[in-house]
Design a protein that fits this description.
By secondary structure, this protein is α+β, with helices and mostly antiparallel strands. It has one domain (2-93): Beta-grasp domain (Ubiquitin-like (UB roll), Roll). The protein has helices at residues 31-38, 40-43, 83-93, and strands spanning 5-13, 18-26, 53-56, 59-61, 72-76. The chain has a 5-stranded mixed sheet, with helices on one face. The N and C termini lie far apart (59 Å). The model has no long low-confidence stretch (mean pLDDT 91).
Amino acid sequence: MAAETLNIEVCYASDAVQFLRALRVPVGTTIEQAIAISGVLQEAPEIDLAVMQVGVYARKKTLDTVLREHDRVEIYRPLIADPKNARRRRKAAA
């Protein structure tokens, strides 16, 4: 029975929502399916998978990526500020 399912996590964080859910999903489940099963889209309706990037352990992946045991699916928000520009501003202010 253990070989037929995977233990995974789905996570998302924003200013208003911190979501982390552990799930058991069937072998062959994709990132998109795991996100749908997790319920994160109901808790954070601002998520738009057509625009937002996803990944597994900080490595960008596509929605059709098949998950493996202990994967953590992450939904990434768009950057508000360019990190390079932010560093330049901090350096100039110092």
